[in-house]
Design brief:
The protein has 468 residues and is of the alpha+beta class. Helices cover 30% and strands 25% of the residues.
């Protein structure tokens, strides 16, 4: 069967690429190894299991909507966040794409309310942070919520399934490239589907799959950063003054000892720490969610340390997953949990010490010792960042602060791509979203899908209407 375009992956990048193409009457096929929204169930999140049961395909990170459908649904509507797309298309165009993505989400049921940091408290927070070397990046944010996000993405599914072909629970084995041009895909059962263009949008869980494709086709790699860190959990009171005005506080920090770049990521007021399972890596990692209807008394966020690798090293994903598997090994197959005070004192945490503390964990994790897992410089970076953050989050560096490990982001394989996100040397092959290192969040991933789709339309000789 021949299509105008085949899209591998049904996360935000794939969904928005398809939405653009079908609007112009293109024949589209979307393929994803995961399930439809209503069939994506996690035994841990639903209270049916205490630890990850290693599902064949993790419903938290795979399936319709991608990992974003199980996240807390934050739409960051300011350039400079969530990826590198502006490096390809420019900040002005990215602003236009962000606006269009936002309007689309609202049209499918996202909350109309936006958090827009402003006023004296915001200015004072930025000033205080700067005094200790932290750069606070105010961002306009629309919070959908994990529960509401599933409803919005399901509405998109119901709309698209009437306009294109969708194959879920289907694994793509390879991309067909002949004479320097993408021609289609090969499925796990050796079924072949042809297309004039292929848009690859595998997301973070598909990063290792994409790495295999990249190696086979010998595609050029631009850089190889990797983000490794922990998820921090504190009482709401530690962050509530900030979350009230920022919702999510995005901070950048260069640590004094090693001059490493650290950042806060995915803050969840009154949220929950959760686990994610990657079957391709046989790895359990940690993440955080925030719901619209169900609240905890804690706020969680990640501290991630970014490291860039150069030749001859060429396996940043392997490096990150190796560290994650060490944590799984020590935690009996799950994730580790340690009090900050125990980490400072050089001792493992125990269930009794955690119960005596001020913070009740929202996730089922094994008390242990993160110093047996994370490299020394990462631990120093994280502790120094927490001490600096204390100036704007009083109490965040308290001994009872909880640290969950390991949190890693597997978008570390960043490819060299044209401004259209087409692969150099392979016509009509586009690689978009988090798995390609183009984006690091819902909005820029969705925008990258639009960029690729509009390039496909232009290649077919179709004039693309102005986005606005």
């Amino acid at each position: 069967m021949k299509y105008d375009a085949i899209i591998v992956g049904s996360g935000p990048a794939g969904i928005f690429a398809a939405t653009e193409l079908v609007k112009h009457k293109k024949k589209v096929l979307i393929i994803d190894k995961g399930k439809v929204i209503k069939e994506r169930h996690c035994p841990v999140l639903e209270g049916k299991a205490k630890t990850c049961v290693n599902c064949a395909v993790c419903s938290v990170v795979s399936g319709w909507g991608g990992a974003g459908s199980a996240s807390d649904g934050k739409l960051t509507l300011t350039t400079g966040f969530g990826g590198n797309l502006e490096e390809y298309i420019g900040e002005g165009k990215l602003d236009q794409y962000i606006d269009r993505v936002d309007r689309t989400f609202v049209s499918f049921g996202a909350d109309n309310h936006c958090y827009e940091p402003s006023g004296a408290i915001v200015k004072e927070t930025i000033r205080k942070a700067a005094s200790v070397g932290i750069k606070v990046l105010p961002a306009r944010i629309r919070h959908i919520g994990t529960d509401a996000s599933r409803e919005v993405l399901n509405n998109m599914y119901l709309d698209l399934k009437e306009k294109c072909d969708i194959m879920l629970n289907t694994f793509v084995k390879d991309i067909i490239v002949e004479n320097g041009e993408a021609r289609g895909v090969v499925l796990k059962d050796d079924g072949i589907y042809h297309a004039d263009s292929v848009i690859v949008a595998p997301g973070r869980d598909g990063a290792s799959w994409l790495e295999n494709i990249v190696n086979r086709l010998q595609l050029p790699i631009a850089s190889m950063p990797v983000d490794i860190g922990v998820r921090v959990e504190v009482p709401d009171s530690v962050c509530e003054d900030l979350t009230e005005h920022f919702y999510e506080v995005k901070c950048l920090y260069n640590t004094p000892t090693f001059d490493d770049r650290c950042r806060t990521f995915c803050m969840n007021p009154s949220g929950f720490v959760v686990t994610e399972y990657s079957r391709s890596h046989n790895l359990v990692t940690v993440n955080g969610h925030s719901l619209k209807k169900t609240k905890s008394r804690n706020t969680n966020f990640a501290i991630l340390v970014t490291k860039n690798f150069t030749q001859p090293f060429s396996n940043p994903i392997g490096y990150a997953t190796h560290i994650g598997k060490l944590a799984n090994m020590l935690a009996g197959g799950g994730i580790l949990l340690q009090r900050l005070g125990d980490l400072r004192d050089g001792r493992r945490s125990t269930e009794a010490r955690i119960k005596r503390g001020m913070v009740a964990p929202t996730a089922n994790a094994q008390p242990g010792d993160l110093s047996l897992v994370l490299p020394h410089r990462h631990l120093v970076d994280i502790v120094e960042f927490l001490d600096a953050l204390n100036i704007i989050m009083p109490g965040v560096n308290h001994s009872d602060t909880l640290l969950y490990g390991i949190e890693i982001k597997l978008y570390s394989l960043r490819l060299e791509l044209k401004h259209t996100l087409e692969v150099p040397g392979v016509r009509n092959l586009y690689i978009v979203g988090d798995g390609a290192g183009v984006s690091r969040g819902i909005v820029q991933a969705a925008s990258s899908g639009l960029v690729a789709a509009q390039s496909v339309l232009e290649e077919s000789g179709m004039a693309v209407e102005a986005m606005l």
